[in-house]
């Protein structure tokens, strides 16, 4: 039986306070009817002996303590779920905004959900190919993993998200059961249109479910948006047996909304003004990714966040890094060199990639190629530091070859076109061609038999002569 309450006690931002309501429960959805015929939706945020605090999704502008009637529905926020979700665009509360009519549900489910029980989890295996060499080779995305992208304001994380959506795929018999849930939070209208148009023009929209919370949409709605998206993903994965890639952008907008709501509740702030429970709140989102032992489907997450002032120690990337299984870091210096995607390889990693690559998954040489590329590029930084001290003239031939490797690695391996889709074999072959710039004895992280099989002989003298002609080095 629904309960209706007339009037309110007070308002504070998007929060509405009522007297203590017997029988009300936390997370319960309320319908707020106004005298002018309008209706707004809210959620019970807090219950005390003296008051019931309600978050109003559409805000409290125009509401007074006397012109409203609040009806308690007796149930939490639910969204309609069916196979018709694919190809649809929804708002932050899961309501259609694409003009294609309502969704006729096969079921409705509470958006709050629960993290997957560790006992029920199946260890992530196999990989998702993104078509981006630096990701596929060196920080491979594994099915069921949580792999965030750490970006910054002005960096091309939106273009990277679109490229992943257009190119990501599975291999083998599961290729046809791969879909994407794309969740945008706090984005501007032009960015939202860029996402929609890109997916539509590339023909991938039919396998994508889009949740859009715009910058001018209510702050409170932004907190619900990723939960709606993950509820849809759980339905597609565990009821429809699909493999779902969930992209969440921008988690910084989500966390700032969380801080604003926390501040309006006058809660004691923690670091940078964010609430002390932000870690557990983010975990309640990230831990909904994974695979279940008794289900065929899977949920893989790529949360994208912009680091304020490019500070990787900021609470948002810091807490995200603790919860997730690696990170992909975008670098402003690479971006200013004209390299896209500007992925900084050295601070990036995928903690689960060792169990989803190699023979039976990608190619037998994949782990060795990844390790050797990483080691060689790390040594490039040492060579450049040495050159800044002793000068280019004093570098040895091997050091010169490392500098050439570093240049080609950034320009030919990390950098690729926004529509360039490289499969894993092309990526590994390209990796070998770059490693062949170095002498064989420098490939210390590889089995000699593997080096003999894949190494491409390139005259080292010609490379050094070319560099001298170009002015990169001088004769010693």
UniProtKB/TrEMBL annotation:
Q: Where is the ATPase F1/V1/A1 complex alpha/beta subunit N-terminal domain?
A: 12-65
Record flagged with keyword Ion transport: yes
Any idea where the ATPase F1/V1/A1 complex alpha/beta subunit nucleotide-binding domain is?
131-350
Task: Spell out the Gene3D superfamilies in the cross-references.
Answer: 3.40.50.12240
GO biological process entries: proton motive force-driven plasma membrane ATP synthesis
Q: Which residues form the ATP synthase A/B type C-terminal domain?
A: 355-455
The record's section on HAMAP family has: ATP_synth_B_arch (MF_00310)
Supply the name of the protein: V-type ATP synthase beta chain
Naturally occurring in which organism (per UniProt): Bianquea renquensis
The organism's taxonomy opens as: Bacteria, Bacillati, Bacillota, Clostridia, Eubacteriales
